[in-house]
Amino acid sequence: MNNNFVAPRFFAQAIPPYTEGMRIGLLGGSFNPPHQAHRAISQFALKRLQLDRVWWLVTPGNPLKENGNLHELGARMQAARDVANDSRIEVSCLESVIRTRYTIDTINTLRRRLSGLRFVWIMGADNLAQFHRWQHWRRIADQVPMAVIDRPPQSFRALASPAAQALARYRLPETKAALLADQPAPAWVFLTGLKLNLSSTGLRNPDGSWKGTK
């Protein structure tokens, strides 16, 4: 479905509250399940990047992952709200509403319809390591500044990845992280210092159920 055909009222319902000029971090993922690392990454980014909000974009499914054990979107949304527990972190089902499968389409839609906001794409170092596999990854980098959160032991693999090497000249020093949201893309920063290494994969049982739940 072409994003242009999404009724404005449905788009508006999927967008968290905002005011013009806000600096918004975007953290996309399946959140299957959401966990404290998602929250820690978001709070770390809020502080280091001087953001006003972080929006969790709960995806209907990841094109690069097996989605057979993916929990229902509503369950993941509610679990994400429970884990976030921070007024600065908002949970959105935008990608389900605009029917996008790829990050580039989501970013294009947000930039077109919310041009008064300053967006930063947030990802973990594990995602930078495979960023070159994302659909139109170079266009993503051209559209929005990116913040990569170090997730040891992924550091070396991430910084040696094809995407990191291709974008090396656009990397800002970590000391200028607070300026990232105001930079024209391409621009990115690699943030170190967060010592929390959880993953959704590690919190799922073999049958796809979430550990700690029935």
UniProtKB/TrEMBL annotation:
* Any single biological process term in GO: NAD+ biosynthetic process
**Domain Cytidyltransferase-like residues, every copy:** 26-188
Task: Give the InterPro entries listed for this entry.
Answer: Cyt_trans-like, NadD/NMNAT, Rossmann-like_a/b/a_fold
Keyword set, alphabetical order: ATP-binding, NAD, Nucleotide-binding, Nucleotidyltransferase, Pyridine nucleotide biosynthesis, Transferase
Q: Could you tell me what reaction this enzyme catalyses? A: nicotinate beta-D-ribonucleotide + ATP + H(+) = deamido-NAD(+) + diphosphate
Q: In which pathway does it act?
A: Cofactor biosynthesis; NAD(+) biosynthesis; deamido-NAD(+) from nicotinate D-ribonucleotide: step 1/1
| Family in the record | Belongs to the NadD family.
Role this protein plays: Catalyzes the reversible adenylation of nicotinate mononucleotide (NaMN) to nicotinic acid adenine dinucleotide (NaAD).
What is the protein name given in its UniProt record? Probable nicotinate-nucleotide adenylyltransferase
Please state the gene responsible for encoding this protein: nadD
